[in-house]
Amino acid sequence: MADRMLQFVRLDQHQPDKRPATARREDFAEIYQEFAPQAAAAQSSRCSQCGVPFCQVHCPLNNNIPDWLKLTAEGRLEEAYEVAAATNTFPEICGRICPQDRLCEGNCVIEKDFGSVTIGSVEKYITDTAWENGWVKAPKPRRELAQSVGIIGAGPGGLAAAERLRMRGYQVHVYDRYDRVGGLMIYGIPNFKLEKEVVLRRWKQFEEGGIQFHLNVAVGRDITLEELRVKHDAVLIATGVYKARDMAAPGIGLPGIVPALDYLTASNRAGLGENVPGMASGTMNAAGKRVVVIGGGDTAMDCVRTAVRQGATSVTCLYRRDKANMPGSMREVYNAEEEGVTFEWLGAPEAFLGDAAVTAVRAHRMHLGLPDATGRQQVQAIPGSSFDLPADLVIMALGFDPEDLPKAFNEPALPVTKWGTLKVDHRTMMTALPGVFAAGDIVRGASLVVWAIRDGRDAAETMHSYIEQKSAALAVAAE
Ligand code: FAD
């Protein structure tokens, strides 16, 4: 191994090429290119094969990263894929959109002195190669079971559970109010981070494996939770968080102010070839407009970069803290800067100006004060610091809260936390309703795809145990 691995002493860190910002601004294609095979092997060989691999420890899926890096360095790509896929339902998606700088790569021991191993890009390379070579198989079980499960939500949480349970042989039914599978991976995250074909091919494979999707079905509207509980042996709620946070300010209701997810969904639907009314009418289209995006998370970064690609005349991100305190991935901030986005740090909106439609955002400067109980510096407005940002389109990206699920599902016995997320027993992931489990953002609050996958896989295991115990108890009772 010694001559093949630990090459960080000799080889510099190298990411796959990124398309130039001038070209990226013109289309919605992904911005990172693929590694050439030799480059992937060389970059993998930089791994120091730590005894305690912090990359793995800090991966929510505990991906066996050192092993698949070593296999890639040795050119054993099919085995590398198998190791990567053993712990992750969608390694090609995590390779593209995980904030590796905060997870695996941010904890790589050679990061400080040599630059981390480019784990995310290698993961993407391995899995894309696996797809090209037909190594990725539909989840077909060896035997069929009579029991069935109902999964509400076809996002990464629900899909990860669906795949695991199908592999065990269950009859898996996934219900989603959207018309496509993927949740935020299809309608939230833009193409330039995750091309939709990557999600659509998984959907196709899951159907080939026998997972049954019931689309355009909103639980609470078209079918009740109670009906699903009667129909299935266990139910998983993986509905994500969709209630956009709002703010109170003069002029907030003016035309031209839109919620981030509506804006991104319109763009993603248009990218999928749909005729989206808001794109034609211009309400959801930044072309020719001065755009201000309010917020500093990943959603805000997706909005500013979408607006650039739609042909906005200017794009400004208004964020109340400074760059160092942005919640979004720093890599995405750099990408946005490269693509021409202007950042107004330490600025918060105080009013939206305009008569028939918004024409400007009035903002004031903020000062970062002492940390609060959570350790985060408090923001304070600086008196007399108002300034105006001209705007024809304002996109509000202030974060998301859970919808009122007990009300939507007409199930008052479904307990929620003070934040509105579902309360579960964290050992079993079961809610207070027997046989009803929950996973993903609806339990954690707005989080990451990788955490939703982890939750979905964990929930699948505990749902399986629950069904087995229930079946055993019924068998004893029948004797
Ligand atoms: P979701 O993906 O939200 O899926 C929930 C599904 O449930 C949806 O399909 C919805 O239609 C369905 N549903 C909801 N209610 C009902 C109902 N009553 N009946 C039937 N179906 C219902 N994470 C990353 O790791 N990297 C990123 O780069 C990243 N970028 C993001 C960009 C944006 C704009 C947003 C909004 C989020 C981003 N995230 C990112 C976060 C990530 O997308 C989520 O954490 C993840 O998708 C949560 O998965 P989930 O399965 O819990 O929920």
UniProtKB/TrEMBL annotation:
Keyword Iron-sulfur recorded: yes
Keywords: 4Fe-4S, Iron, Iron-sulfur, Metal-binding, Oxidoreductase
Domain FAD/NAD(P)-binding: 149-456
Superkingdom assignment: Bacteria
Membrane spanning residue stretches: none
Coiled-coil stretches: none
Domain Dihydroprymidine dehydrogenase: 24-134
The keyword Iron-sulfur belongs to this UniProt entry's keyword annotation: yes
One Pfam family, short name: Fer4_20
PANTHER family: GLUTAMATE SYNTHASE [NADPH] SMALL CHAIN, GLUTAMATE SYNTHASE [NADPH] SMALL CHAIN-RELATED
Protein name in UniProt: NAD(P)-dependent oxidoreductase
Organism: Falsiroseomonas frigidaquae
